[in-house]
Amino acid sequence: MKLSNASRELIRSRLADEIGRIDKQAPHRIALAYPSPYAVGMSSLGYQSIYRIIQAMPGVMCERVFLPDGADRAGTTEIEVPVSYESLRPLGDFPIIAFSVAYELEIAGMIRMLDEARVPLLVEDRREGDPIVIAGGPLTFSNPVPMMPFADVVIQGEAEEVTPWAIEVIHQASTRDAALDNLAAHPHINVPIKNGYEPRNPAACDLALLPAISAIRTPHTELSNMFLIEAERGCSRECKYCVMRRTTNGGMRLVSAETILSSIPEDVMKVGLVGAAVSDHPKITHIVNELADRGLGVGLSSLRPDRLKEPFIEALCRGGYRTLTTALDGTSERMRQMVVRRGYEKHYVNAAELARKYKMKRLKLYLMVGLPEEDDSDIDECVEFVSGLSKIVPIALGVAPFCAKRKTPLDGYAYAGVDVVSKRLDRLRKGLKGRADVRSTSAKWAWVEYVLAQGGAREGRAMIEAVQAGGRFADYRKAFAPLGYSVHGAQQAGGSASPRKLPLLSGS
Ligand code: SF4
Predict the structure, then answer these.
(1) Is CATH 3.90.1150.10 correct for 225-319?
(2) 5-195 — its CATH code?
């Protein structure tokens, strides 16, 4: 579908509101694509960081292309042609298209964008002259295989060093095939047509390249005009469900407080400190206080419950933090111990009391439902505990159904089932009615995420049918059914009826 005048105007107005864009002209153009709409893509520090890196390459420039607004809505069968924000050039006209993919359901956006751009969807159908499609991003730390049928090149892990190298290799090669041959030899790059679908180990970049820093500020994201900077990378902890746990990329790498504080431009009003476990930074209270002293607003991407000590909360309050957010993770102490979460009831009670003392609006808790061996008694324990917390401070619960991820100790565990998860969510909502604001992601879409988190190339290919049919849940259910998937519980990836048994309360 052609680009409408309304979309042209929207792009123009968004560009006018941006601060920090690196306008550049160079002979080699790359489309830096994000498979979700502008507001999501521009909130991604990883996407912004790669934008900055490509713009620093001699002779190379990138233009940003996003999934058109609304094209991620279920039931969409036709979208406007994706074009670059910088020149309105159609996506299919770029010789290199580099996607940053955060999580499984975004593969649908990638399929939609390539399809509408008239790029052959499957790598085996592409020929000389077709764009070379590169994919990278957070999804490559766990299971990038379902997107491999659509990506000529998958850069696994931290892409700061590998991306410029890959772009150089493509520019120097005489043919498409020669470029892919050369790229396939890299230890952190997978070229499915050359290497097959076996993922490679994620790259870890040189510490000297940290921190990632956002390039462009815009009011048109949830993080409106916030300057993003990485305070640390990776995590030293071992939560059993988490892809970013210690073993993934060698643990936590810190950015010094001095580097963080000296990297913030003078015209910034709000600073977002980003990282898998920012509150584990040993200087975090000092950093937040320094930012507050400058009169800046502060946002943190994650707070660990055992780190919520009073001086830190006081600093957050000075930085304008109004919703204290942390993860409850399991519905009961038993579940939290099972996932090796170092959060105990005493930590959450302490957090609620400090939130009240510092006049925060509420305590927000993230929670997983449907962990292995969970039952209704765990939900009831959660209702009782959260009801108690709600007497101290208003509580909001952000609930997500558990989906086992590759490269974690819970890899291979079955999804609890759409029916089971829906019932538990209902039980939780009813039990907390009037006491906590409970919001959850859908049990149905979590099932789709589960299939893709555990699946391979055939699950990726099956997405084509689902996306082209409109991308509703029923379309995915129909597309995955011939592969042996059922939306009911006790079913492992690929249809096996015997899920793994979990040794409860064991170590990592
Ligand atoms: S959930 Fe958070 S604390 Fe736990 S391993 Fe992952 S990043 Fe670290």
Answers:
(1) no
(2) 3.40.50.280
Check residue 392 and give left, alpha or beta (phi > 0: left; psi -120 to 50: alpha).
alpha
- Determine the Cα–Cα distance for residues 109 and 119; give it in Å rounded to an integer: 14
Report whether 262 contacts 290 (CB < 8 A). no
- Ligand 1 binding residues, C-beta < 6 A: 235, 237, 239, 242, 244-245, 276-277, 304
Q: Which of 212, 207, 313 is nearest to 272 (CA)?
A: 212
Residue owning the nearest CA to atom 5 of ligand 1: 245
pTM over 0.90: yes
Ligand 1 site-directed mutation target among 242, 243, 280, 340, most atoms within 8 Å of CB:
242
d(CA 342, ligand 1 centre) in Å: 10
Tens-level pLDDT at each residue, the chain (508 residues) = 888 999 999 999 999 999 999 999 999 999 999 999 999 999 999 999 999 999 999 999 999 999 999 888 888 888 899 999 999 999 999 999 999 999 999 999 999 999 999 999 999 999 999 999 999 999 999 999 999 999 999 999 999 999 999 999 999 999 999 999 999 999 999 999 999 999 999 999 888 899 999 999 999 998 888 999 999 999 999 899 999 888 777 789 999 999 999 999 999 999 999 999 999 999 999 999 999 999 999 999 779 999 999 999 999 999 999 999 999 999 999 999 999 777 899 999 999 999 999 999 999 999 999 999 999 999 999 999 999 999 999 999 999 999 999 999 999 999 999 999 999 999 999 999 999 999 999 999 999 999 999 999 999 999 999 999 999 999 999 999 999 998 886 555 554 444 554 444 433 3
| Residue of 230, 245, 303 with the most ligand 1 atoms within 8 Å of its CB, for mutation | 245
Q: Probe ligand 1: pick from 233, 240, 243, 244, max atoms within 8 Å of CB?
A: 244
Distance (Å) from CA 284 to ligand 1 centroid: 17
**Closest-lying ligand 1 atom to the alpha carbon of residue 238:** 5
CA of residue 363 relative to chain centroid, distance: 23
Query: Quick one: which of 276, 373, 261 has its CA closest to 327?
Result: 276
For the chain, the domains span 5-195, 225-319, 322-342+355-508
Cβ neighbour number for residue 467 with a 10 Å cutoff: 22
| Integer angstrom CA distances of residue 489 from 105, 160, 368, 416, 444 | 20, 40, 16, 5, 12
DSSP state of 213: B
